[in-house]
Amino acid sequence: MTDHTTRMAALLGELRREMNGAVAESMQRGAGGYGLNYGVSIPTIRAIAARVGTDHAFAQFLYRQDVRELRMAAVTIADPAAVTPDDVDAWLAGRMPEELIEELALRLLSRCGRPVLDTLRERWLRAGSGAERYAALMALARARMQEFDTAAVVEAVPEAVAACPDDLRLARGAAAFVQSAAARIAPERLGRMLDRLPDSRGGRYLRDELAWMIG
Q1: Which residues of the chain fall short of a pLDDT of 50?
Q2: How many Å apart are CA 212 and CA 49, to the nearest integer?
Q3: How many DSSP H helices and E strands does the chain contain?
Q4: Please, are residues 18 and 48 in contact by the beta-carbon 8 Å criterion?
Q5: Cα separation of 66 and 88, whole Å?
Q6: What predicted TM-score, i.e. pTM, was given to this entire model?
Q7: Would residue 75 be called left, alpha or beta, if left means φ above 0 and alpha means ψ between -120 and 50 degrees?
Q8: Model confidence pLDDT, tens digit, residues 75-127
Q9: What gap in Å lies between CA 60 and CA 8, rounded to an integer?
Q10: Which residue from 108, 182, 94 is spatially nearest to 138, judged by alpha carbons?
């Protein structure tokens, strides 16, 4: 733990040197922010984290901190092969701004093995927080589609949108998933899914985004 604390302090010092105060202030005023942030750009965080190398235990330690740059760096430092289904809760814990969810899905969860992808699919299918469902959808959208059956995910979209009718984040995640899996979704199935969407902000967004797929 002491070693992790020392390394974290050194990493945070490196990240702070890239601080953008104006960006940090504007982000802090936004919804779903962090306990602390320095406004460092995502490409810069990735580059600094990449120099650390892969260290899953250290990444888990960093991710537990309520600091934007440390949580974002942790996603790059973590080892996808070391994530297990039992670990998924830990990666979905704490404050989950949209940018962190997207980075987590892109850099870590989508690169995990079949057991983790199956866990994410199950999370999507059962009731849960909007953040959990969005993270699951974005990870599944970026994963190799041959790893799992997409049908159950697609079938659950209308109910999920109805449960969160004005959640555009969820609708964007659903659109990303369906578009990435388009080759494996029969047009008739997609058409039935679109017909079942509620007349809500999220439902209208999805119809607009996906209507071209059925002509």
Answers
A1: 22-23, 26, 29-31
A2: 40
A3: 14, 0
A4: yes
A5: 18
A6: 0.84
A7: alpha
A8: 999 999 999 999 999 999 888 899 999 999 999 999 998 899 888 888 777 75
A9: 12
A10: 108
